[in-house]
C-alpha cells in the first residue's frame, strides 16, 4: 500500500479575542491510498479542524502554525518541482510549502469535502443540476490537458486573472457537463435524475440533498473525499443508505475517504483504520481491530463503553452482524466530564485526559505521553499505559493487579 497523505506535526490555532485556542497540536497522520480512515472523537476534540487543515479550509482567525502536509501526486510534484523544490520529496508535495493558489487548484479535483449540512454546499438560487454541472466543468477544463495537474497549477500560477477564466460562468456550462451531472445524480441514487436536475435545493429532501452533495463532491473525481459527519443530521434509515452509498462509491472509484465522526458505529461499518482524537491530539490509532479489540487508551475504552453492544470479537464482525438493521446515532456522553477547553492550553506538557481518566497517576501529569507501540505495527497510543513497563505488566495475568487495575 502507498500513502496518499502524510501529516507531520500539524498544529492549528485560532487567535481569538479571548486568547489562543490550540485546536490541533503536533498531530501526525498517515493515510493510505484507497482506504477509509476514520477520525473519531467527541465534539470539540479537533477532528473537523484536522480535516479542514488538511484540505486548506481553515479561515481567519484560525491558522496552521506548524507542520507539514505531504500529498502524494506525481503530476503535482512535477509541476511544482522547478519553482518550489523544497516542497517536493519524490512524488510527495508539502502542501504547506506551495503557494495558496496551488492548494486552491486542488480543491474539488484532488480533494473534495462533504458536510453534515448539505444546504451549505448549494446556492439556493441555482438548480442542483446546474451546480453539479459547474463542478464537472471545472474538472473538465482542468484535465483538458492530459498532464492535468500541471495544466491546473500552471494556469493558476499565472494569478487570479487566469483563475477567473478557469472557473466557468454558468452560461458556458456545456451540454456534456450537464449530462455528466445527470449521470452523477443517478449514480448517487436520485430518482428521475433528468427532472430532478432542474429542481432547486429546497425541493430536495434532506437525504436527497445529501446525495446530491455527494454527487457534487464526486464531480471533480477527487483522490481524497473528506466526509465530516456526513450522516449525523439524517434519520437512521437514510443514514444507513448514505453510508452504503459512500461505501459503494469508494469501492467503485478507489478514492480515499477521510471520515470524521463522533459515532463509533459508523467507524466500525466504514473504516479500515481509525484515529481516536482527544483535545487536539490523536491519542490512539491503528486498524479497526487494534482500536476496537486491543485498545489501550482509557479514552478509547470510554468511547467504546458508550456503545457496549459494539464490543465483540472484532468490530468488523460486530458491524457485519448489524449490517441489516440501521444503527442508532447514539451520542457519546458516557465519560464523566468534558473535553477540556483548548484556550491557552500549554502544548504537550501533560496528558489532557488525566482529569477524566480512571487510571490517571502522577506520571500522567508530570510529562506528556509519547506515542508508543502497543502490539501491532500500526497500533500507536499516547498514554503512559502503552509504555514498555505497562505493556509488560499487561502481559501478566489479569488478576496481577487485583482490583486496582
Ligand atoms: Fe490516563 Fe495517564 Fe493514560 Fe492519560 S496518560 S490516559 S491520565 S493513564
Ligand atoms: Mg470499503
TrEMBL record:
<dbReference type="GO" id="GO:0005524">
    <property type="term" value="F:ATP binding"/>
</dbReference>
<feature type="domain" description="ABC transporter">
    <location>
        <begin position="5"/>
        <end position="304"/>
    </location>
</feature>
<dbReference type="Pfam" id="PF00005">
    <property type="entry name" value="ABC_tran"/>
</dbReference>
<feature type="compositionally biased region" description="Basic and acidic residues">
    <location>
        <begin position="317"/>
        <end position="327"/>
    </location>
</feature>
<keyword id="KW-0406">Ion transport</keyword>
<dbReference type="GO" id="GO:0005886">
    <property type="term" value="C:plasma membrane"/>
</dbReference>
<dbReference type="InterPro" id="IPR013563">
    <property type="entry name" value="Oligopep_ABC_C"/>
</dbReference>
<dbReference type="Pfam" id="PF08352">
    <property type="entry name" value="oligo_HPY"/>
</dbReference>
<dbReference type="InterPro" id="IPR003439">
    <property type="entry name" value="ABC_transporter-like_ATP-bd"/>
</dbReference>
<keyword id="KW-0813">Transport</keyword>
<comment type="subunit">
    <text>The complex is composed of two ATP-binding proteins (NikD and NikE), two transmembrane proteins (NikB and NikC) and a solute-binding protein (NikA).</text>
</comment>
<keyword id="KW-0472">Membrane</keyword>
<feature type="region of interest" description="Disordered">
    <location>
        <begin position="307"/>
        <end position="340"/>
    </location>
</feature>
<keyword id="KW-0067">ATP-binding</keyword>
<keyword id="KW-1278">Translocase</keyword>
<dbReference type="InterPro" id="IPR027417">
    <property type="entry name" value="P-loop_NTPase"/>
</dbReference>
<dbReference type="InterPro" id="IPR003593">
    <property type="entry name" value="AAA+_ATPase"/>
</dbReference>
<keyword id="KW-0547">Nucleotide-binding</keyword>
<keyword id="KW-1003">Cell membrane</keyword>
<dbReference type="GO" id="GO:0015413">
    <property type="term" value="F:ABC-type nickel transporter activity"/>
</dbReference>
<dbReference type="GO" id="GO:0015833">
    <property type="term" value="P:peptide transport"/>
</dbReference>
<dbReference type="InterPro" id="IPR017871">
    <property type="entry name" value="ABC_transporter-like_CS"/>
</dbReference>
<protein>
    <recommendedName>
        <fullName>Nickel import system ATP-binding protein NikD</fullName>
        <ecNumber>7.2.2.11</ecNumber>
    </recommendedName>
</protein>
<dbReference type="GO" id="GO:0016887">
    <property type="term" value="F:ATP hydrolysis activity"/>
</dbReference>
<dbReference type="InterPro" id="IPR050388">
    <property type="entry name" value="ABC_Ni/Peptide_Import"/>
</dbReference>
Amino acid at each position: 500500500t502507498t500513502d496518499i497523505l502524510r501529516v507531520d506535526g500539524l498544529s492549528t490555532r485560532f487567535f481569538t479575542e479571548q486568547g489562543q485556542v490550540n485546536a490541533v497540536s503536533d498531530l501526525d497522520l498517515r493515510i493510505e491510498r484507497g482506504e477509509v480512515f476514520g477520525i473519531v472523537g467527541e465534539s470539540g476534540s479537533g477532528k473537523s479542524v484536522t480535516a479542514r487543515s488538511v484540505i486548506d479550509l481553515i479561515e481567519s482567525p484560525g491558522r496552521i502554525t506548524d507542520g507539514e502536509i505531504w500529498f502524494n501526486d506525481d503530476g503535482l510534484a512535477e509541476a511544482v518541482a522547478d519553482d518550489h523544490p523544497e516542497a517536493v520529496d519524490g512524488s510527495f508535495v508539502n502542501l504547506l510549502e506551495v503557494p495558496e493558489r496551488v492548494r486552491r487548484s486542488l480543491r474539488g479535483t484532488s480533494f473534495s469535502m462533504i458536510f453534515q449540512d448539505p444546504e451549505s454546499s448549494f446556492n439556493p438560487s441555482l438548480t442542483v443540476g446546474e451546480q453539479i454541472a459547474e463542478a464537472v466543468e471545472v474538472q473538465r477544463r482542468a484535465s483538458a490537458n492530459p498532464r492535468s495537474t500541471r495544466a491546473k497549477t500552471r494556469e493558476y500560477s499565472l494569478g487570479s486573472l487566469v483563475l477567473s477564466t478557469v472557473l466557468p460562468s454558468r452560461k458556458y456550462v456545456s451540454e456534456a457537463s450537464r449530462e455528466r451531472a445527470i449521470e452523477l445524480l443517478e449514480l448517487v441514487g436520485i430518482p428521475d435524475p433528468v427532472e430532478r436536475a432542474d429542481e432547486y435545493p429546497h425541493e430536495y429532501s434532506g437525504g436527497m440533498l445529501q446525495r446530491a452533495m455527494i454527487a457534487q463532491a464526486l464531480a471533480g473525481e477527487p483522490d481524497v473525499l473528506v466526509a465530516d459527519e456526513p450522516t449525523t443530521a439524517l434519520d437512521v434509515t437514510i443514514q444507513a443508505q448514505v453510508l452504503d452509498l459512500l461505501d459503494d462509491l469508494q469501492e467503485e472509484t478507489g478514492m480515499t475517504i477521510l471520515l470524521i465522526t463522533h459515532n463509533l458505529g459508523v467507524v466500525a461499518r466504514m473504516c479500515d483504520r481509525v484515529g481516536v482524537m482527544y483535545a487536539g491530539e490523536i491519542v490512539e490509532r491503528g486498524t479497526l481491530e487494534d482500536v476496537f479489540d486491543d485498545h489501550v487508551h482509557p479514552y478509547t475504552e470510554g468511547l467504546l463503553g458508550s456503545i457496549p453492544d459494539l464490543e465483540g470479537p472484532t468490530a468488523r464482525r460486530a458491524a457485519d452482524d448489524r449490517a441489516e438493521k440501521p444503527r442508532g446515532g447514539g451520542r457519546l456522553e458516557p465519560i464523566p466530564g468534558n473535553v477540556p477547553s483548548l484556550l491557552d492550553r500549554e502544548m504537550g506538557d501533560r496528558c489532557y485526559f488525566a482529569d477524566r481518566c480512571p487510571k490517571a497517576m502522577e506520571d500522567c501529569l508530570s510529562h506528556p505521553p509519547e506515542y508508543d507501540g502497543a502490539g501491532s505495527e500500526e497500533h500507536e497510543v499516547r498514554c503512559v499505559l502503552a509504555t514498555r513497563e505497562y505493556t509488560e505488566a499487561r502481559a501478566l495475568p489479569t488478576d496481577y493487579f487485583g482490583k486496582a487495575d
